[in-house]
């Protein structure tokens, strides 16, 4: 229908145009009037039907079904057992609630909990699923955790030239930095730092791991080691010791008192193609009842069945300067320098 209408319009326009050019203006006007009338007729003929007029009487809708309220729990909300949570959101009593906080829902507010699942670090490579983390310090924050560590320790042993001072310890970005400086304090030429868990935490057996970057320079002597919680000097377990002028080498040693009362040792030094002062590495000890095994970056380096300790031992991490073994700083030793610790973690094997 629409195509026919368009065709009629086109033919009429052509006739009007030709008549007008030839001077037959009256004929052109008549054709124009005929075309307008035809368009009106054709529009009415082809128009879509109009919708029916709605009825004058309203349509009666069926009554809505009544809504039945859900039964209220017979047990008060505050007494419903809650999921065990690591931490709960403290709830203010109604008297202390802010003005814009409705207190009519007190029962619900008092049961609100925040469940926090701590992210456990992945188990070290030498351990299977029978081991679990029992103690750690990730050194987050800005101050040393006094519930885990002390920073005071006698200075000057083994001919060392440093005094341990609290301000040698700095924490930032998840790293504990033990700084070594050339400054004279309490009669010593150098200052440095130490952390130990004596009187705060000790364990017999387990897996002890540190991730650290060591300082380079003549006279530096960083170490991570264990001593008896009884305060005795032996046994002593050196998870690692290093000499600053040998950046490719670490030492792993067990010291104990033999049956004759003399000091005995089992030790191994580890030369590495890399450089322990350029990046972080892990140093670890797996202490079992009849075997001690040392690891570097998760790879076994040394084991011993001699002089296995049979008592709880505490942790020590320190940066000594000078002494009988490492020697003393010289003009090439860079100051300040630091022993950087990312974390210290201790695992224990589940009893079968």
List descriptors:
six-stranded antiparallel beta sheet; 3 helices
Distance between the termini: 92 Å
Q: How many strand units?
A: 16
Main β-sheet description: 8 strands, antiparallel
Secondary-structure element order, as H and E? HHHEEEEEEEEEEEEEEEE
Backbone structural class: alpha+beta
Which regions contain 5 or more consecutive residues with pLDDT less than 50?
46-117
Radius of gyration, in Å, reads: 44 Å
Provide the helix percentage.
10-25%
The coarse silhouette is elongated
Q: What's the total helix number?
A: 3
Give the mean pLDDT.
80
Beta content comes to 25-35%
Describe the structure.
With 352 residues, the protein is α+β, with helices and mostly antiparallel strands. Helices cover 14% and strands 31% of the residues. The protein is built from 3 helices and 16 strands. The chain has helices spanning 2-22, 25-46, 106-110, and strands spanning 131-137, 162-164, 169-172, 175-180, 190-192, 194-196, 206-213, 220-228, 236-241, 249-257, 263-271, 281-288, 291-296, 299-304, 313-321, 337-349. The strands form 3 sheets. Strands 1, 3, 4, 7, 12, 13, 14 and 16 form an 8-stranded antiparallel beta sheet that branches. The protein has a 6-stranded antiparallel beta sheet with strand order 6-15-8-9-10-11, with no helix packed on it. It has a two-stranded parallel ribbon with strand order 2-5. The chain is elongated, with a radius of gyration of 44 Å. The termini are far apart. The model is unreliable at 46-117 (pLDDT under 50).
Short description:
The chain is built from three helices and 16 strands.
């Amino acid at each position: 229908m629409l195509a026919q209408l368009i065709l009629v319009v086109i033919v009429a326009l052509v006739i009007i145009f030709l008549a007008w050019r030839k001077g037959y203006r009256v004929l052109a006007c008549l054709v124009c009037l005929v075309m307008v009338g035809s368009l009106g007729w054709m529009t009415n003929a082809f128009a879509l039907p109009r919708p029916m007029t709605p009825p004058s009487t309203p349509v009666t809708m069926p009554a809505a079904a009544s809504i039945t309220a859900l039964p209220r729990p017979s047990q008060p909300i505050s007494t419903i057992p809650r999921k065990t949570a690591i931490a709960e959101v403290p709830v203010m009593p109604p008297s202390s609630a802010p003005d814009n906080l409705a207190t009519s829902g007190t029962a619900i507010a008092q049961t609100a909990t925040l469940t926090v699942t701590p992210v456990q670090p992945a188990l070290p490579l030498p351990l299977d699923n029978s081991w679990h983390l029992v103690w750690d310090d990730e050194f987050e924050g800005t101050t040393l955790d006094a519930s885990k560590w002390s920073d005071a320790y006698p200075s000057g042993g083994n001919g060392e030239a440093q005094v341990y001072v609290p301000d040698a310890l700095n924490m930032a970005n998840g790293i504990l930095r033990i700084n070594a400086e050339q400054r004279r304090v309490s009669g010593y030429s150098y200052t440095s730092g130490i952390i130990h868990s004596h009187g705060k935490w000790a364990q017999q057996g387990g897996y002890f791991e540190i991730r650290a970057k060591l300082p380079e320079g003549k006279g530096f002597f960083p170490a991570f080691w264990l001593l008896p919680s009884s305060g005795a000097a032996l046994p002593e377990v050196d998870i690692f010791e290093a000499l600053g002028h040998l950046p490719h080498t670490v030492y792993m040693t067990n010291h104990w008192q033999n049956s004759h009362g003399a000091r005995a040792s089992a030790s191994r030094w580890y030369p590495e193609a890399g450089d322990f002062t350029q990046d972080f590495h892990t140093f670890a000890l797996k202490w079992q009842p009849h075997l001690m095994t040392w690891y570097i970056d998760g790879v076994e380096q040394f084991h011993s069945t001699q002089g296995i300790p049979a008592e709880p031992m505490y942790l020590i991490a320190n940066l000594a300067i000078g002494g009988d073994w490492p020697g003393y700083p010289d003009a090439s030793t860079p100051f300040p320098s630091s022993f950087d610790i990312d974390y210290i973690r201790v695992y224990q094997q589940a009893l079968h």
